[in-house]
Write a structure and sequence with these properties.
This protein is an alpha/beta fold and 256 residues long. It is built from nine helices and seven strands; from the N terminus they run E-H-E-H-E-H-E-H-E-H-E-H-H-E-H-H. Helix 1 crosses helix 7, helix 3 (62-75) packs parallel to helix 4 and helix 4 (101-127) runs parallel beside helix 5 (148-168).
Length: 256
């Protein structure tokens, strides 16, 4: 594992990728702050793991994020790794979604990362060490039908992460922007509960542990982009070179 620090700060820690990351780091001996709006989910994450401190947090609230960072550093110590994993994924055609849903997706998926960055990263840069991991998605590179709002939020994460990395390279903090295909986590249930993009059937979800392993490998190589799963990086290349061909497949698959 590339992590050599003592304290981790993980948003979205109540389920999915955030939960698994928190549990694996705690099992490896780290002190972990798991943060989420889902208090019950956090309790399940921290069950039988005294190394996990569950903290209820709305990442869209800057003041609450600032207070959470201060509390973690006071109670656990200086933050050595951040996982920005909090996200939602309601699906649907853009004109069919409730007006409030679209900015809410952006506020959580992108705005939450901005808030954590503003309050957690300066201390890490000041100490000249740590890992700062943002969860984007292949949806941040390849837009598809029914995921327009989610695509927009993850495109924002990709751009923000790239500029953030270049503004702060060679300052001791390692950055990673994670761009997986669909992952077998509860996030996919939001698509099942709304509109399931048929294109997902062409992309069997990969296991969360594969994503975490890819993050460690990328951090060790000091690269920025994490493309977990077989064929994911090829998909990224194809999107850059033959976008119209990919769109033809999307329209054919979705039947519209």
């Amino acid at each position: 594992m590339a992590f050599t620090g003592k304290v981790a700060f993980i948003t979205g820690g109540g389920s999915g990728m955030g939960r698994l990351a928190a549990q694996k780091l705690a099992d490896a001996g780290a002190s972990v702050a798991a943060l989420d709006v889902d208090t019950q989910g956090l309790e399940e994450t921290a069950k039988d793991r005294p190394g996990i401190l569950p903290l209820t947090l709305d990442v869209t609230d800057p003041a609450a994020v600032e207070e959470a960072v201060k509390r973690v550093e006071q109670d656990l110590g200086a933050i050595d790794r951040v996982y920005n994993a909090a996200a939602i994924m309601p699906t649907g055609l853009l004109l069919d979604q409730e007006l409030a849903t679209i900015p809410r997706i952006m506020d959580i998926n992108y705005g939450g990362i901005v808030n954590v960055t503003k309050f957690a990263l300066p201390g890490m840069l000041g100490r000249g060490r740590g890992d700062f991991v943002n969860f984007a998605s292949m949806a941040g590179w390849a837009p598809v039908l029914y995921l327009g709002a989610y695509n927009a939020s993850k495109f924002a994460v990709v751009a923000f992460s790239e500029v953030l990395y270049h503004e702060n390279r060679d300052r001791g903090v390692r950055f990673a922007c994670v761009c997986p295909p669909p992952v077998a986590t509860p996030l996919l249930d939001q698509a099942r509960d709304n509109v399931w993009p048929k294109i997902f059937d062409q992309l069997p979800p990969i296991e969360p542990d594969a994503v975490l392993k890819a993050i460690e490998k990328t951090l060790e190589s000091k690269s920025l982009w994490v493309f977990p799963g077989r064929g994911t990086k090829l998909g990224w290349i194809l999107r850059r070179w033959i976008p119209e061909t990919l769109w033809k497949n999307v329209h054919k698959t979705e039947g519209r």
